[in-house]
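Hi team,

As requested, here is the filled-out complex form for the zinc ion run. I kept the field names the same as last time so the parser does not choke. Let me know if anything looks off before we queue the next batch.

— J.
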Amino acid sequence: MHNLALAISQKSGYQITGSDDEIFEPSRSRLEKAGLLPKQFGWFPERITPDLDAVILGMHAQKDNPELLRAKELGLKIYSFPEYLYEQTKDKIRIVVGGSHGKTTTTAMILYVMQKLGIEADYMVGAQIEGFERMVRLSDTAKYAVFEGDEYLTSPLDPRSKFHLYKPHIAILTGIAWDHINVFPTFDKYVDTFRQFVDLIEQDGSFIYFQDDANLCSIAEHARQDIKRLPYSTPDFVINDGVTSVIADGQHFAMCVFGKHNLQNMQAARLACQQIGISAHDFYTAISSFKGASNRLEKICQTDNAVAFKDFAHSPSKLRATVEAVRLQYPDKRLVACMELHTYSSLMADFLPQYDHCMEKADVAFVYFNPQVIEHKRLVPINPDDVQRAFATHNVQVFTDSAALQDALRALDYHNTALLMMTSGNFNGVNIPDFATDLLVPGFIKQKKLDNRYMRMARIWAENSYCTRRQVGALLVKDKMIISDGYNGTPSGFPNQCEDENNVSLPYVLHAEANAITKVARSNNSSDGATLYVTASPCMECSKLIIQSGIRRVVYGEQYRIMDGVELLKNAGIEVLFSSDK
Ligand SMILES: [Zn+2]
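And here is what came back:
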């Protein structure tokens, strides 16, 4: 909802207010920044007045919500979130991506290509995607709207699937694999909601669907005659040295993403883009730099012989696709796959058989679930044997204790290995990127803790600076010893003032890292091979000095306007790390 509020507030002529009983981060700060955070949390029917144009209801609103009751009493126009998205885009060409899996990725691919080609679009996507500030955008100017179409119900008050409200001109369905068993108790009911979605395509619209899915083929066959049917499958591709290239019109396009499921999503996105006049060549050229939606096969660490990925997958179809993708991309590596049964559906005893053979392509397969979560969700208890039987392959080992799982992972050798960590949770409190990196690069976590401590010391050292606008501190550490320190300031003989009246640094101010490096040069010590801790990213001039001084590692604590200094350091082969820990 807060994404919608921010999106509408960007349009001219709209005044937005909102209520909620609780507002969490990051919504809270983002609303505050936009001046939209309510002064008090809770429900205030007196705020609902006859002059309101519309009231938009969040999906968690209760029937007896006092503001809702007041709005009904006044006869105000009340919309659900999906209804309002339609209302705002009813004169635009709407592209809607549905399916049990791959919707976020496919939506992100379409938006990515449109953005690269300078085609403006309104959008709503279910997860934060790189290069897009928000999850919702609405404008007066865009001709197109691209929505991720979720089959889940609109709200407890409106039992329609959300994607039934968007009425697409161009509809995509990526596949149907039973999910949300709590609201779709049978598979037939689940398929039916997709059939209705296709019925709601606008006159003479297009239906893009995955042709290897029998249910989708049946839906397409029985669809209205005016609807243009556009089936797709896996494109031709080759894999060389861990890089997947799609072959189109005899040309190879090297991609950042991999896995058959991603290439299939790419075909859906290509057909949608084709419908709005984008050529295959332009599409493939643009999509080649697409790195994937966040949380989907996100590469968290790579060494010269091992690689680790994190993925949000938990449902059977996503799990299978993700494991197979990594298997295919790295045929010669040992595949260690670790997953957590975490969502409501995945922990239901009746649903477990859907996981049949899902992880068979992994050499080592660890499955974790937390019995306390099952208790908390008030589900029928399951035991490790049930889970083992459901997966039905010998490679699977089941854990119910996170510490035991971590020990088992630590006991493995990761030479020539692809590691895959899959969950929508965190294996009961594991920092997945740090943990996985530590498996591939032993000592990583220890070094990170050490780096954070030195960085805290550099921050304290910065307090010596009499610069008012920006205090920067630096430490040089070699062989576990602090060999030098520095903070920004003016050389002796100059006034004790770092900034002019416009708060711009005066040219004679010496930077913290330059002070630390010149100080060590005057001592018996040498900065050769040392690590530099500096609280702000080094500038170009300091970076040159860092390279000349033989420093091997630079850890910096804050990104400063222009990052060309950091780029220079990286190009010179210096290990550069950003420490966000405060
Ligand atoms: Zn500098």
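Two things worth flagging: The mean pLDDT is 91. The first strand starts at residue 55 and ends at 57.

Thanks,
J.
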